Each structure stands twice: as structure tokens, then as C-alpha cells.
Amino acid sequence: MNFASVRIITDDVNRLVEFYEKVLGVSAVHPAPVFAELVMPACTLAIGHSQTAQLFGAGSVVAASNHTVILEFRVDDVEAEYARLKPIVYDWVKEPTTMPWGNRSMLFRDPDGNLVNLFEPVTEEAIKRFSGRH
């Protein structure tokens, strides 16, 4: 089994797609006006309009209501990403910080309030843990 994607449900697909295109540096594919995908080597970030939520079962998904999931992306240089994203991110949760498990992380919220973590393994143990992963 392979992890394929994470889907965010939103009331404003275009706003969220534009944000993640800037953050991730990839262009989205729009198979339908209510759905887009940002395809990366390790997985895909899918963004669907709240109109599509009914396809998953009534009441199963509510736009912009996530308080338990963190979208995490490994980067080569957290400090460089922080400098690059500072002008476009408006809701910083944590500036670059080295975490107890050896990752240098920065956390911010996307326009819908979803938590995003960009991290870089920096300790010898963390680098070893991530070696061989995409």
C-alpha cells in the first residue's frame, strides 16, 4: 500500500490552491472546477470545494474545521524557506525552532487555518532516521 494524498476541503479552492502553489513551488492540476491537485514526488495534496463533501457522506467533512492534523513537508533549508515565505504567510505559529526529536521546524497556518510544518532533519539521529525516505 502507498500513501497517495491528503485532501483539504475548503469553501475557496482558488485561494487555497494559490497559497499552496507558492508554498510548495508546484503548479496545480485542475481536473474539475471544484477540485485541484498539487502533485509532488512523495504524495499529492488535493484540494476540494466544500460542494464535494457530500460525496463522502452527509456531514462527514466540514470545510476549514481541522484542529488535529498537521501537514508536514521536509525541506532542504528551513531558514531559507522561512525567509522566502515570510512575505506570503500571515499566520505564523512557530518561527524556526529545533525540536527535541532533531528536526528544525517552522509552523504556520494556511488561509483556512490548517497547520503546516516545514521541517529539516538537523541532528545526526534525525538525519539518519530520514535517510532513504523520499
From TrEMBL:
PROSITE patterns: VOC. Residues 2-121 form the VOC domain. GO terms for molecular function: metal ion binding; methylmalonyl-CoA epimerase activity. InterPro entries: Glyas_Bleomycin-R_OHBP_Dase (IPR029068), Glyas_Fos-R_dOase_dom (IPR004360), MMCE/EMCE_epimerase (IPR051785), VOC_core (IPR037523). The keyword GTP-binding does not apply. Pfam families: Glyoxalase (PF00903). One of its GO terms (biological process) is L-methylmalonyl-CoA metabolic process. Keywords: Metal-binding. PANTHER family: METHYLMALONYL-COA EPIMERASE, RING-CLEAVING DIOXYGENASE-RELATED. This is VOC family protein. It comes from Paenibacillus monticola.
